[in-house]
Amino acid sequence: MTLSTMIYTYLPATQAAPGATRFSLIRACHHQEAVLDHPHQTKTSNKANRLAESLANLLHLHIDTPQRTNINPNNWNLFTEEMHSTPTTSPKDIISEKWREIHGSNDWEGLLDPLHPWLRREIVKYGEFAQATYDAFDFDSFSEYCGSCRYNKNKLFDVLGLDKNGYNVSKYIYAMSHIDMPQWLERSHLADTWSKHSNWMGYVAVSDEEETRRIGRRDIVVAWRGTVAPSEWYEDMQRKLEPIGSGDAKVEHGFHGIYTAKSDTTRYNRSSASEQVMKEVARLVELYQARGEEVSLTITGHSLGGALALLNAYEAAEKLPGLPISVISFGAPRVGNIAFKEELHQMGVKTLRVVVKQDMVPKMPGLVLNESLQKFDDITGTLDWVYTHVGAELKLEVGSSPYLKHGRFNLPGFHSLETYLHLVDGFFSTETTFRSNARRDIALVNKGCDMLVDDLKIPQCWYQLPHKGLVRNAHGRWVKPKRDPEDIPSPTREAQAHALQGEMMQPSSDYTLKSLCGT
Fold first, then answer.
1. Which residue did the predictor score with more confidence, 316 or 143?
2. Is there a contact between 265 and 178 (Cβ–Cβ < 8 Å)?
3. Which residue spans adopt a coiled-coil conformation according to this UniProt entry (predicted)?
4. Which domains, and CATH codes, for the chain?
């Protein structure tokens, strides 16, 4: 039995008093944070609870017992009505004069606790870019396009409502793996599919003119897709480190395999994800630097995507020295050993890891054998086979939000990227409560999980295509519709469009990336 299975099996169901709810009163305090009145917690002493607590301590998790509070339904309904009538975003601030600090030039010193509002907005922005790789991904195993993006790159952000961020997608990235890793590669049940070996793994985007002026440089973004829920393949990927680069750095072989795998027999991975992304990033850097612009590279990803982001940053720093490179990852596992961490630091890569305390994935690989063993270096010497996290950490706490369910072990909910973005939006500091003026739509938390309290009346896992993708045809029968021709994956068409875009984007051209992307 695996450890995660043990946790699901032995954690007790929480008990609450009849009619009890999680809320009593939400009010605004002088910090403009949301404050929740909690009564005294009662302790449980049964054997099952003690076992659950022991497992939680092993994983360094914190599991709240349920709060027994009373709520006035009228007050709560009034509060939600007011919340629904406010915008979901705050006005954008011009950060051009401080972009290097926001991008991590000083390792975000003094900006994380309390969390600077400019940095908060940028973290949410990059998190939404990572979330797009889930929202647009075709998970339907009965679709001939399972594993692809539902939309072509010219309309991806428009469909998902991300056009407001001021970026345009320039290229899609595809990945495969020669290593059998359960629940990573999504495959169709159908015999005739767009690809039997590859998945859409992310994209490259670049800031438009208006956003470039606001943030003070031309920002190239790479967003990597991860896993929707933490599955047991993480436990299978902590047994082998393999070398990377010319020094002592080593990385987890499964992550590296996804990043570098290719095959001449595939349609989309005759070149690896590594080769695809680096070719595009190098092209954009050369293009905009030739125009005399300052250029940055920001790489983001959640879960597995956060691991790929670090590998991407390592390669980019090697091949594009002097380029400001930052990684903003969410719920990412450890990737490599101490030498890998040190080489990233020496090459100037800045990494900000956003971590939820209750999430199990950032504790892997190396649940026991990890960076905590460095305290014994005087005795053991440097252990090159020990997994180590990289960069600065922004640690969040599920219990800080009055909108999230407490007291239950919800592994998919803890790991959900939407949970992360909700907690970032509400975080001010470790000494204050959840921000009352947090703007991000709370309903988004339940897109793919069940984390919101029932008082909010938001159904769990609500994000799906109407009728699960079926439509009624002219004869009144329910059928699976054909994709728009422009949204059907085609390596030939994508290559031709990308080549044309590259020609038209030369410095002498009057075209802009925004016009080329049809926006």
1. 316
2. no
3. none
4. 94-396+489-516 (3.40.50.1820)
